[in-house]
Amino acid sequence: MVSARFLELARAEAGWTGEERRTVELGALLRGIAGAMGADPRFEGVTLRVRGDEVTVLAMPSALEAAVRNLLENAAAFALRGAAEAIVEMELRVEG
Prior knowledge:
Layout: H1 2-13, E1 22-25, H2 26-38, E2 46-52, E3 56-59, H3 61-80, E4 86-92
């Protein structure tokens, strides 16, 4: 499943998709995904926190969302392993 997502992202990066790149505010994207995950019983006991700078990127929104969702779901699942509660923190920072 993960390799299929990376293949999908690679195709998107190569321009093999009809979706156009748009400006995406990463904080809003992360908060939206965190909210959806908070309602998902698979991630009961996980607290997702978003902090940091407002970061805007030019991206294909659906591909970026798929990649971020995959990373957060993996982090939450790993953090919960053997624990009743866990915290996953996401920090946005602009450098350079």
